[in-house]
Specification:
451 residues, mainly alpha, Arc Repressor Mutant, subunit A, 25 helices, 3 strands, 63% helix, elongated
């Protein structure tokens, strides 16, 4: 039985077209709409689709309508949660590609049934893995697909074993999805080949493998590392941290903190700072979390001018290595966080601050206006480095070295100019303005009779 849907179609029931839903919004019961927004987002989408041509609408068209209903502030969060509910509604066909529309079906079809049909029809290993993962995620109870579990497991096992086109990360992803099905059938996952352990042991670059995994598998990957290397997992995760970026950096940090590896992490960060081997993504994470109480004990010892020097070096290196004009995230962080520079140089001496400011001015990773803005923060903390902009720098630029004979020749020319040539121009006394005006009048009057 379908849930009761409030009546949203009064006088505007006959209006079709892209603007029809806006007519519905303007004349429908406000309370009924708010009730659907709050408790039944899938029913709201069904009502919207009934007013669209062919009962279908693209994602962008739906988003435009929903933005008007909810407002810009609430829309994004609501829509992210609503899409998960809509995906399970048998009345709505959810697009599998960005260009596909949302369609209101004539007859409800279970999402599991639709995915199963696609799974059996496709021959692409990557697509099979994603469909199988989606299928088990959508099923509230595995009983709904219980009869198909053995067949799905067989197809997945064959896909991860024999598909040469799968990358290392895709194969590991497929193994994990396969293992989820095997556990529901009571099968020992370590007896299946390839196993997740064998993939890790065969990998030549765990950092590259981690970076290409789906984000939701980061924690599972680190758990696997700790099982494969029970005695040296801390060193293994710290090595992964060194080359990490984005969400994987956060996951590595959380994993190490949860397993009481703070001391090893702190010592390693200090060593990397001294060796100048900290990389831009890790520096960015450290600077963003410098005031976090959770990480304070580990991060506070390395906060200082040396970390700022490492950041400037990393920014300059990234700018020199890049062939495009794409933004440098670490440079933007230094520019946007107005307290960051002062936090890092508060315990530095004037000479160290001057050296850092000089490094900033020479960096290729900042625009000129950004450099001046950052330099102002240095000057605010250390006014004595004002000379880096204007002042002594300009005066020094005006000086130049000449030989003694050349200097004496110029001095002689200047003396002659002052004592001889300028006075020669003053031999003839200047004519007064009044006398000059009188002469002009006399000439004018004398010429009048002849005219």
């Amino acid at each position: 039985m379908q849930p009761h849907t409030p009546n949203l179609r009064p006088a505007c029931v006959g209006r079709k077209g892209r603007c029809g839903i806006f007519a519905v919004v303007s004349c429908c019961c406000h309370k009924a709409i708010q009730q659907l927004i709050k408790s039944s987002p899938n029913d709201l989408i069904v009502e919207i689709l009934t007013h669209c041509p062919d009962n279908a609408a693209s994602a962008s068209e739906l988003e435009t309508i929903l933005q008007r209903l909810l407002g810009e502030g609430k829309f994004k969060k609501w829509w992210s949660a609503a899409k998960k509910v809509i995906a399970k509604d048998p009345r709505i066909a959810v697009p599998t590609k960005k260009a596909d529309p949302y369609i209101l079906r004539d007859e409800p079809v279970k999402v599991e049934t639709e995915i199963l049909e696609t799974f059996y029809a496709t021959r692409h290993p990557r697509e099979r893995i994603h469909l199988a993962e989606k299928l088990i995620a959508l099923s509230d109870r595995v009983d709904e697909i219980k009869e198909d579990l053995p067949k799905i497991l067989e197809i997945l096992t064959e896909s991860v074993q024999k598909a040469p086109q799968l990358t290392e990360a895709e194969r590991l992803h497929g193994v994990w999805v396969r293992n989820d099905y095997a556990r529901h059938l009571g099968i020992d996952v370590e007896s299946l080949e390839p196993s997740s352990t064998s993939i890790i042991l065969a990998s030549k670059d765990l950092s590259a493998l981690a970076e290409t995994l789906p984000v939701q598998f980061y924690k599972r990957f680190l758990d696997l590392i700790s099982r494969v290397y029970p005695d040296t997992w801390t060193e293994a995760v710290i090595n992964l941290l060194k080359n990490s970026s984005g969400k994987f950096t956060q996951e590595c940090m959380t994993f190490l903190f949860e397993r009481d590896s703070r001391e090893a992490l702190q010592n390693t960060l200090q060593l990397w700072l001294e060796e100048q081997s900290l990389k831009s993504p890790l520096i960015q994470w450290i600077l963003k979390n410098r005031k976090s109480r959770k990480y304070d004990a580990v991060l506070s010892p390395i906060m200082g001018p040396r970390l700022l020097a490492a950041a400037l070096y990393a920014i300059d290196y990234e700018a020199l290595q890049s062939n495009s004009t794409r933004r440098i995230a670490l440079a933007e962080l230094l520019s946007d966080d107005s307290n960051l520079v002062s936090d890092l140089i508060q315990n530095a001496g004037a000479e160290v601050a001057r050296d850092l400011a000089q490094s900033l001015l020479m960096s290729q990773g900042f625009e000129n206006l950004t450099k001046k803005s950052l330099l102002a923060r240095f000057i605010k903390a250390f006014p004595q480095i004002q000379s880096l902009v204007g002042g002594d720098t300009e005066r020094e630029a005006e000086r130049f070295v000449v030989s003694r004979p050349s200097f004496e020749l110029r001095q002689k020319e200047l003396t002659e100019l002052i004592n001889v040539k300028i006075p020669e121009n003053e031999i003839y006394p200047p004519i007064s303005i009044a006398a000059s005006a009188s002469a002009r009048v006399t000439r004018s009057n004398s010429a009048w009779p002849s005219a």
